[in-house]
Amino acid sequence: MPLGMSGFVYAPPDTPLRLIHHDSQIVVVDKPAGLLSVPGRGDDRADCLIGRLRGAFPEVLLVHRLDLDTSGVMVFALTRSAQANLGQQFEMRQVRKVYLARVLGRLEPKEGRVDLPLTVDWPNRPRQHVNHETGRPAVTDWRVIRAQEDESRVRLMPLTGRSHQLRVHMAQTGHPILGDPLYASGAAREFPRLMLHAESLRLRDIESGKSVTFSAPCPF
Q: In the annotation, is 67 catalytic?
């Protein structure tokens, strides 16, 4: 559930962290759905991924975030220089992010692109919306893996990193991500979680400069 919804009770999963990779510069982990990336406001939202990681990696530093409801690959830095290096890779769009999602209905064609600028919908925070005047550029590519009448499994490749980008973009196509409490409606919302998973992350190794890819199996 999103933080802005009334009646929301934060109940993070009590599951062991799954480490994907760690070395002297970075740690890569598979974030479970329902766990904040960083602390929220209030003591009841203190439990978070970076907080749990500090037990084993006291020096851990934030590089990027995933939504509370999204699972999958996250990378953290273990040194200030690694944090700066990775931050620049994200800023320069040199990191390739691939997500898996289940969306409502049959998504056609098999491949496509959504190019719609996004900004926060202030009266309805944390919702984002399309705004051609004040929105920041946001681009998402999609590729259908399997399509049925009631839903499609797709890979989503964001070329930018706006808040809620994949969720808003898919809703704008008329195929919202299943289980999305903010941008789906009716039966499409009635799922145990948001059906969005960060499947893989490709970046340049801090020391060698070579391209490396980290992946996490999709739980749905």
A: yes
Catalytic residue among 67, 141, 180, 205: 67
The span from the first CA to the last CA of the chain, in angstroms, equals 17
The structure tokens listed for 9 are 């009770």
Instruction: Answer for the pair 83, 27: CB distance below 8 angstroms, yes or no.
Output: no
Q: What is the pLDDT of residues 73-82, one digit of tens each?
A: 999 999 999 9
Predicted TM-score (pTM) above 0.90: yes
Q: How far apart are CA 122 and CA 137, in angstroms?
A: 18
Residue 147 to residue 108: CA distance in whole angstroms: 9
Name residue 98's beta-bridge partners. Answer: 200
CB 70, CB 33: distance < 8 Å: yes
Q: Among candidates 181, 66, 165, which has minimal Cα distance to 173? A: 165
Under 8 Å between Cβ of 120 and 163: yes
